[in-house]
Amino acid sequence: MRAAIYNGKRDILLTELETPVAGDKDIVVRNLYASICGTDVAVYTHGPGTGHRITVGGEFGHEMVSEVVQVGKDVKDIHVGDRVYPYPRLAKGDPKRAGTVGGFSEYVLIPNAEWKKQIYPVGEKISSKEASLIEPFTVGCRAARRSAPKHGEKAIVFGAGTIGIAAAIALQYFGCEKVMVCDHSDFRLKKASELGFAVCNNGKEELKTAAIAYFGEAQSLQGITADVDIYIDAAGAESILELYQKMGKIESRMVVVAVLAGKRPVDILSMTFAQHALIGSGGYFPEDVEDVMKIMESGRWKIASIITHEYPWEKLPEAIEKAANVEETLNVVIHYE
Questions:
Q1: Sign of CA dihedral 111, 114, 120, 121
Q2: Using the 8-state DSSP alphabet, how is residue 97 labeled?
Q3: What are the backbone angles phi and psi of residue 80, rounded to the nearest 5°?
Q4: N or C: which end of the chain has fewer CB within 10 A?
């Protein structure tokens, strides 16, 4: 089988490995599409230790949609030809392998396979290309869920990448009335706008002013601010937490989903008197997979439109290089056909 091996910074070996064989309780799937994650870009660009415990000399990739090609004799209700989403936390039987499932290899062995544990069925209404976005969309969906959105609430999402847009869509799905997406990339903001979101390039315009104009006014500790209930950080800039503490209205809340190592100062007194909530969100759970499937099947949002570039497997290094350019790309996928 074709396989991609991570050999360190800007070094990917495209090679052939022996195709796996299913044991009695296992299945083997053939990947159809794989999406490139920001952590794949990080470990490629910066080297080992910067993304999902991807190890030198190993297979990697985890955002994929696949087709079952082998079924062990003891496996129940799974058939050759079924189109599936391998759930990265369990697909290899070890949550630590969530980033190294093998999405950039042609075939993957999934041990002890069961429906809605190691794999999920992909409905007919979801195209294979769109289904390659299920994994990042579950991350965004989890962030939206962690904000405990209520019907009619209003939200700002920082970051117009795949996870930020997924969070914005999930907020609408959960009942938010108005959602604004902020980013410094006009290219990505245009994609968010085409999906129906208000947008703000907060590198060029003053966010508070734009937010008041769109959401209306509310009270903060510092005075009048925008009437926003939920903030989600899917960008990871150091300034976002400080910005939230300055402009967040009384009883608003912020969820941090962007991966940014290190410590950040928090004004505890301000947080206390403003009744602010600071919430972490990492990974995803089965309920997020179920909701993302429903979101995609609804057809309400043209989710595949955020895939801006598609490459054949043989050009995986070029595809990862392209995915690093946020001014020209949003989501980049590879295909195996």
A1: positive
A2: G
A3: -60, 135
A4: C
Matching residue, tokens 């300055």: 246
Count CB-CB contacts under 10 A for residue 38: 19
Low-confidence winner among 45-49, 87-91, 218-222 (lowest mean pLDDT): 45-49
Element (H, E) at 314: none
For residues 69-90, average pLDDT = 97
Inform me whether the pLDDT recorded for 263 exceeds 90: no
Which residues have C-beta within 8 Å of that of residue 70, sequence separation ≥ 6? 21, 22, 26, 27, 28, 80
Query: Number of C-alpha atoms within 13 angstroms, CB side, residue 262?
Result: 7
Question: Alpha-carbon distance 12 to 2, whole Å?
Answer: 13
The total number of residues shown for the chain amounts to: 337
Cα–Cα distance for residue pair 132/128, rounded to 1 Å: 6
CA distances from 301 to 85, 130, 291, 294 (A): 20, 11, 14, 11
Question: Taking Cα atoms as reference points, which of 74, 80, 99 lies closest to residue 89?
Answer: 99
Contact 245, 253 (CB under 8 A): no
Q: What span, in angstroms and rounded, lies between the C-alpha atoms of 169 and 176?
A: 9
Collapsed DSSP state (helix, strand, coil) of residue 141:
helix
pTM over 0.90: yes
- C-alpha 143: how far from chain center: 10
Average the pLDDT over 289-310 and give the result. 97
CB 2 within 8 A of CB 35: no
| Phi, psi torsion values for 4, nearest 5 degrees | -110, 125
Instruction: Check: CB of residue 67 under 8 Å from CB of residue 33.
Output: no
Confidence check: pLDDT of 261 > 80: no
